[in-house]
Write a structure and sequence with these properties.
Helix content: 55-70%
Number of domains: 2
CATH class of the largest domain: Mainly Alpha
CATH superfamily of the largest domain: Winged helix-like DNA-binding domain superfamily/Winged helix DNA-binding domain
Largest sheet: 2 strands, antiparallel
Order of helices and strands: HHHHEEHHHEE
Number of strands: 4
Length: 166
Amino acid sequence: MAAVLSGLRDLRVELAVLNHRVGKRVRLRDLDFDCLDIISRQGPISPSALAGRLGVHLATMTGVLDRLEQGGWVTRDRAPGDRRAVLLAAPPERQREVYAEFSGMNTRMGQILAGYGDDQLDTIADFLHRATAAGRASSDEIAGLQSEPAREGAAGSAVRTESASA
């Protein structure tokens, strides 16, 4: 157990360094890069939902989004159901620019994962989903947010449900 927890801490540091270096190459600050990652993977998303997801004040988020929009990294579009609401999206051509910077890591991860069988990959994916849910629940706890406990989803993986305040 200690080796796994230590390994997670080591991985967190190495991924933070990698993300910082990629961000530097494409001229994105760490928080800007985190925002872009969430927008590209979970978008379209509202600015307030993004701020809540990252635990930053909406005023801070406005400055980040202004920088990202100026750089062509995100677009702000009116929500179809509510013309007052804004949704953020990441243009695919800019996403490809960031993904290209991760090609070395993606190749290395592909090589590592190719050494595991399907059952092992299922176990690894389940562990990562559960660890992510634990991290989010702990972050919400520190922030004083009410979040529902992780529940078992399909294939036994922990699934976090969003609270009404998110």
